Amino acid sequence: MSQQTYIARTSGLKAKDYLGYAMVDAAGCLVFALVTTLLQKFYTDIFHLSPLFIMIMFIIARVWDGINDPIMGRICDTVAPGKYGRYRKWILYAALPLAISAVLMFLKLPGIGEEGHYTATCIYATITYIFFGMAYTVLQIPYGSLASVVTTDAHERSKLSVFRSIGAALGSIPVLLIASFAYEKRLDASGNVILGENGKAITDMQYAPVIKGVIIMAICSFVMLLIAFTLNKERVKTKPQEKAPGATKRAIGLLFHNRAFVAITMVSMLLLAGQMFTQSFYTYLFDDYFHANWMNLATQACTYSPMIIFMFFLPKLTRAKGKKEVTAIGLTIAAAANLVLFFLRGMDPSILMWIFLAMNFLSGCGLTTLVMQLWAMVTDAIDDIEVTTGSRDDGTAYSVFNLFRKVGQVLAAICVNGALLGMNYKYEKGAVQTLENLKVMYDLGTLIPAIMFGLMAIFLFVWYPLTKAKTEELQIRKEEKLKEAYEKQEIDI
Description:
Elements: H1 6-9, H2 15-45, H3 51-78, H4 89-106, H5 118-150, H6 154-172, H7 174-181, E1 183-185, E2 203-205, H8 207-231, E3 237-238, H9 247-256, H10 259-289, H11 295-304, H12 306-321, H13 323-343, H14 349-371, H15 374-389, H16 394-422, H17 435-463, H18 468-487, E4 491-492
Helix pairs in contact: 2-4, 2-5, 2-6, 2-7, 2-8, 2-10, 3-5, 3-16, 4-5, 4-8, 5-16, 6-12, 6-15, 7-8, 7-11, 10-15, 10-16, 10-17, 11-14, 12-13, 12-14, 13-14, 13-17, 15-18, 16-17
C-alpha cells in the first residue's frame, strides 16, 4: 500500500472541479436572488399583499421547512448512492422543479393581485413560495454535503468555499438588472410625472420586465445545473448511515452538542438574515428614499466586487492567520461601516448616496472574509464532530444548518416587514410615502444590518472555538480517522 496519506489520496482537485462546484451555487442563486431581491417588493407593489401577511407567510413556510429539511438530510445520508453518487445526483433531480417554481412565484394569473381577489392572491403566493422552498432544499442540502466527498483536504475545501462564494455572487448579479430597470415614473391622467412630498418623481415596479427577467433566469439556472452535474465528481464513496430507530435524533443531538457547529450555524443564520434584509429593504430605500433605482446594481457591485480582490489572497491569509481570526475582524468592519451610515442620517440624500455606496464597499470587504470561508468553516465543524464522536452525518448536518439559514430568512422577513409596518409603509395601489416615513426607513435600513453584523463578530470572537491552532490539530486527527475508517472498509478511497 502506498505511503501517501489518506487525505492526499482523496484530494488533488483541478480547475474543472472548482468550476463545477461553483456553478451549482451560481445556478441556484440565479433564482434564489429573485426571492432575496425582488420578491418582497413584488408582493407589496404587484400582488398588493400587506407586509403583515407576507411576514406570516414566510414564518409558515419556515415551520414547514422544520419538517422538510431534516427529512431531506436523512434521505441523503441513508439512501444508497447509486451510479450518480450520494449527493451529486440531486443536482440533476432539482434542476427542473427549481426553474418551474421560480417562474410560478412571479406569474400573475388572471385576477391575482387585483381588487376582490385578495384571498386568492394570498393562497397562490403561499403555495408557490413553499413549492420553491422545497425545490431549493432538494438542491442545497445535498450540495452542502457534496464538499465532504469531493475532497478531504482542508485547504482544498477552503478553496471550494471561495469558489462557491464567487459562484453565489455571480449568480446574484443578473437579478439586479431587473431590480434596476423594472420601474417607470408614475404619470397622472394628463401624462405629467407625479412628484412625492420630497419633490422627487414617484416610480412604480412594472410586471412585464420582471416576469421576462424571471423566465430568463430560470432557464439559465436549469441549463447551468445540468452542466454542473457533469463537472462534479465524488472521490470518497461512503456507505449509507444506519436507519435504526432513534438514529436521526442521535445525529441531530450530536450537532447541538458541538460548540463549533452551533456557533457557525448562528453566524450563518445572521449572515443570511443581514444579506436578505439589505437586498429586500434596499429596493424600498433606493426607490422611495433616494429615488435612484440604479443604486440596486451599484450597491451590489460594491458589496460583491471585493471578492475579485480577496479571491487571490484570502485562502493564504486564513491559512496564515486562521479562518476564525480573519472573519471575526472582517465582520467588525462591516458592522462599523453600517453604523457610520446610521449616524449620517439627515444628510442631503443627493450627497449621502455616494457615501452610502462607499460604506457598502467597506462593509462588503468585511463580509467577504466570512462569505468566502463560511462553507469551509462548516465542514471544519462537521470534521470536529466526527473526530470527537466517531459519527458523521453530512446530510443531516447540512439539513440542520440549512434550516437555521432559513430561520435567518424568517428573521429578515420579520425585520423587513416589521420595519415597513413600523414606518406605516403604504402598499395600496397609487400610494405615496410621507417624509416622516422615509426618515424612519433610512434609520432602520442602516441600524438593523449594523446590529446583525456586530452580533456575528461577537459570536465568532467569543463562541466559535476552532482557532488556527485547533484547526491544524483537527486536520491531524481527521487523517487518523480516515485511516481507521478505510481499514474497517467504511469508506472506499
